[in-house]
């Protein structure tokens, strides 16, 4: 899937300090960072609910009057569904359906305890743990590491 979104953060640091902060953030994030003279490439693991994947980004750092600007351009996105979580949600949905239908179909009463457990397990294992991590979150981490973050912008 092609994605050309751009994300930007302005820092009060020099471009070299910004590159060091970016490398430290990539290490904490678990990203693959290939540094070049004024930027580099970044393989950024991302999570979007039930989707997880990798976004290949081009990073450029440019000096400004107040410090530097890091611009991250997503060049390619590859995502896949977390299949195990989907299977757990299907069983949880089946349990929820049994819980909702047993008053109308009394024969389902013996399945009620199992249905309640399936629904609760789906909630606790999947729904309550859904997270999201985007390139904007990565740039916020860079700003926190630099400790001089001023603004984060997103252009789609």
Q: How is the biggest beta sheet arranged?
A: 7 strands, antiparallel
**Count of individual domains:** 2
CATH topology of the largest domain: Alpha-D-Glucose-1,6-Bisphosphate, Chain A, domain 4
Q: Rg from C-alpha positions?
A: 22 Å
> How much strand content do the residues show?
35-45%
Query: From the helix content, strand content and strand pairing, which structural class follows?
Result: alpha+beta
Write a structural description.
It is built from four helices and seven strands. The protein is an alpha+beta fold and 156 residues long. Strands 1, 2, 3, 4, 5, 6 and 7 form a seven-stranded antiparallel sheet that branches. β3 and β4 (51-63) form a beta hairpin. It has two domains: 6-81 and 131-155, Alpha-D-Glucose-1,6-Bisphosphate, Chain A, domain 4; 84-128. It starts with 5 loop residues before the first strand and ends with a strand. The longest helix has 19 residues, at 83-101.
List keywords for this structure.
single chain, 156 residues, alpha+beta, Alpha-D-Glucose-1,6-Bisphosphate, Chain A, domain 4, 38% helix
Q: What would a concise description of this structure say?
A:
With 156 residues, the chain is of the alpha+beta class. It contains four helices and seven strands. The chain folds into two domains: 6-81 and 131-155, Alpha-D-Glucose-1,6-Bisphosphate, Chain A, domain 4 (2-Layer Sandwich), CATH 3.30.530; 84-128.
């Amino acid at each position: 899937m092609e994605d050309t979104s751009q994300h930007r953060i302005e820092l009060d640091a020099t471009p070299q300090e910004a590159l060091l902060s970016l490398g430290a953030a990539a290490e904490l994030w678990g990203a693959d960072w290939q540094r070049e003279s004024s930027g580099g490439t970044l393989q950024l693991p991302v999570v979007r609910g039930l989707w997880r994947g990798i976004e290949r980004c081009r990073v450029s750092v440019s000096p400004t009057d107040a410090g530097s600007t890091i611009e991250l351009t997503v060049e390619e996105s590859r995502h896949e569904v977390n299949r195990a979580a989907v299977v757990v949600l299907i069983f949880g949905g089946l349990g929820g359906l049994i819980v909702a239908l047993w008053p109308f179909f009394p024969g389902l009463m013996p399945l009620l305890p199992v249905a309640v457990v399936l629904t609760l397990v789906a909630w606790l294992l999947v729904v309550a743990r859904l997270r999201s991590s985007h390139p904007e979150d990565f740039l916020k981490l860079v700003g926190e590491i630099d400790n001089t973050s001023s603004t984060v912008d997103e252009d789609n």
